[in-house]
Specification:
two-stranded antiparallel ribbon, Leucine-rich Repeat Variant, 37 helices, elongated
Length: 661
């Protein structure tokens, strides 16, 4: 099994973290009779030799020994070793690794009938990937399926047939095999697996009633499935994640495969989610909540019905299911409106959920209250008032209040009071003030100006509090239209890192272009990347008054920084009103950097008919089924809200251009 292992110069080979001298110990550990030692060895292999799917010279040197281990029946848990070989050969994308594993592919054929079901399960897909005789491979699968009695191995065999169909699409017999497996008298789970593989490899052979069939099979499968109610009760992040995780991972994988295969067919996916989210089985509904989250994050459609069904889980007796639904709804912001009644009902009935304190952490706003506020529902205001009146303001409370905008005006006195009582000699003064400033700015509370000015005038310089909070304080004064009252302080900031923000606020207060223009040009030329972008935005506010800055804006629009190019080009339009140098920059930035599309769309809306040459980009964006944030790797957080904002801006652009025709 380990013949020749000591003849390899492992110390000279490399893995992710350096010399591979410890690899022989891990290989021997994979054969240990001690489960903990085997797990440590497997962790070592994945953590270094095959770290994040990478292949090193030590990885290639391990392949023959891994095959020897996989073929030895005395070695426990060999299925994990076969899975490691598949990952090295197929999933890494390394041609050398693929050839190394293919060279011993016959081992996988011999393992197809192994006594260990875990080995048989892993060997099925491995054989399809690494044995290059398609007729023989399909014949072996056909022979194995009727005699296999382990349900999980049968699922793996069906998935292997699906891999075969995608690898050899001309082999109609393989598709026929999947079609046969998708029909009675096969087990409902196996039929679901076959439907998922057909959807991935041969969608033309799917039944016309795919969604009702899949929902029916899911419910039949769930009725047979044993319950696994084990949930962690620890109030830690790990404990909460365990509670949120569905216990039926096999069922989740079956439905995930089907959702993945359906891709842009959002109507079918929404209908499928409707069946999942109304299942009698709470575990099926829990799986569906997370699949709904994937759909919401990545695609664009009318999600009112699935969002309302996710909201319906908030009344579940299963705490983990309710928490999962809250977690998903809190990402949706305005899209959560169809679930607002359920969110409000939960918030009204459970004051204990208004805040949450993690173990060893500070209190935060509870998920249901957060989701209700982010949806813009004014029913959150009375509850937020009670939380705000408590002894401790939860972290981020002001940020959540800001989503309500002017509807949160009743909270302004309490917010001003909290802001006015922050000790300015505290090192945490900026952290405590920031969310309150965000809320007051969003509400538009001009009565808060004295408390806001206090942060600039009263904070001691020695602790750096004024410097930390100055940027947001200036932005709040600007938003409130009160920069004029702070003019002396703002002028003092024109020689600090907050010069661009202060210059913009001074312009809005008195329109003194000669005073602020040199400052903004200096910051555009010399500032840090974020400061340069801000300076460009502030110059755009000046409009034609900033014409002396046009040469510097042109240089910035030709720079290598995509974000700066976008903001500088937009400023060029607002200042010079000439679309010719602007439109090529905006087109390139739109195509190269999807994250820049929001600012570009906002600029195009301001340009009106002058932006008509980019109408094709805007029209294509509105017809695209995928969110632009999904294409840039965004997920969770504000990604959905940002994409919905982009869509709204694109609609505004087209409307303004259409009116001009």
């Amino acid at each position: 099994m380990f013949t020749g292992i000591d003849e390899v110069d492992w110390a000279s080979l490399r893995h992710a973290h350096g010399s591979a001298r410890e690899v022989p110990g891990w290989l021997r550990g994979l054969a240990s009779t001690d489960a903990a030692e085997r797990q440590t060895a497997l962790d070592g292999m994945y953590g270094t030799v095959h770290h994040e799917g990478n292949v090193y010279d030590s990885t290639l040197a391990c392949v023959p020994f891994l095959f020897s281990l996989a073929a030895r029946e005395a070695v426990p848990e060999r299925g994990c070793i076969v899975e490691l070989l598949v990952s090295i050969g197929a999933e890494s994308g390394d041609a050398r690794a693929r050839e190394a594993v293919r060279a011993d592919g016959e081992v996988f054929v011999s393992l197809l009938g192994d006594p260990d079901p875990g080995v048989r399960r892993a060997a099925a897909g491995a054989m399809v990937r690494f044995v290059d005789d398609p007729g023989r491979v399909l014949g072996l699968l056909r022979q194995r399926i009727p005699v296999e009695r382990d349900g999980r191995v049968l699922l793996a065999l069906t998935e292997a047939v699906g891999v075969f169909v995608r690898r050899y699409p001309a082999w109609a017999d393989a598709v026929d095999l999947l079609v046969a497996q998708s029909a009675p008298p096969h087990d409902p789970g196996l039929r679901l697996a076959a439907l998922g593989q057909l959807a991935l490899g041969a969608p033309g052979r799917l039944p016309g009633d795919l969604v009702p069939t899949a929902v029916r099979l899911l419910r039949e499968r769930s009725a047979r499935r044993a319950r696994v109610p084990d949930r962690s009760a620890n109030d830690t992040l790990v404990g909460r994640l365990r509670r949120l995780r569905p216990s039926d991972e096999e069922g989740a994988r079956l439905l995930r495969t089907l959702h993945t295969a359906l891709g842009d067919r959002t109507g079918d996916r929404i209908d499928l989610l409707g069946g999942q989210l109304t299942s009698p089985d709470p575990v099926d509904r829990g799986n569906a909540v997370w699949m709904a989250a994937v759909l919401f994050r990545g695609w664009r459609a009318d999600f009112a019905r699935p969002v309302a069904l996710v909201g319906g889980q908030l009344g579940s007796e299963e705490e983990w299911l309710r928490d999962a639904a809250v977690s998903v709804l809190s990402e949706l912001f305005g899209l959560a409106a169809p679930a607002a009644d359920d969110l409000h009902a939960l918030v009204a009935s459970r004051p204990d959920l208004w805040t949450h304190r993690w173990e060893r952490g500070s209190p935060t706003v509870g998920g249901a209250l957060k989701a209700l506020a982010r949806s813009g529902d004014p029913r959150a205001v009375p509850v937020l008032a009670q939380v705000l009146a408590g002894p401790v303001v939860p972290g981020g409370l002001g940020d959540e209040i800001a989503h309500l905008g002017p509807a949160a005006a009743p909270l302004a006195p309490a917010l001003r009071h909290r802001l006015g009582w922050i000790p300015l000699d505290s090192p945490a003064a900026d952290t405590r003030a920031a969310p309150l400033l965000t809320a007051l700015g969003a509400i538009g509370d001009v009565d808060a100006v004295p408390e806001v000015l206090r942060l600039l005038n009263g904070a001691p310089d020695g602790l750096g509090v004024r410097d930390k909070i100055a940027g947001q304080t200036v932005a709040t004064l600007d938003a409130l239209g009160a920069a004029g009252r702070a003019a002396p302080v703002l002028r003092a900031l024109l020689h600090t890192r907050h010069a661009a923000a202060a210059a913009g606020a001074l312009w809005s207060a008195d329109g003194d272009a000669p005073a602020v223009l040199p400052v903004l040009v200096r910051e555009l030329r010399q500032g840090e990347p974020g400061v340069r972008r801000l300076a460009a935005r502030q110059l755009a506010r000046l409009g034609p008054a900033a014409r002396p800055a046009l040469p510097e804006l042109r240089r910035a629009a030709a720079s290598g920084q995509a974000g700066l190019r976008t903001h500088a080009a937009c400023a060029l339009w607002h200042v010079g009103r000439d679309p010719e140098p602007v439109l090529p920059v905006l087109r390139a930035a739109w195509l190269e950097s999807p994250g820049a599309r929001g600012p570009i769309a906002r600029c195009l809306a301001a340009m009106g008919p002058a932006g008509m040459p980019l109408r094709d980009l805007v029209s294509a964006e509105l017809t695209a089924p995928r969110r632009h944030t999904a294409r840039t790797g965004g997920h969770g957080g504000r990604a959905i809200a940002e994409d919905e904002t982009l869509r709204g801006l694109c609609e505004e652009v087209l409307a303004r251009q259409t009116r001009s025709l």
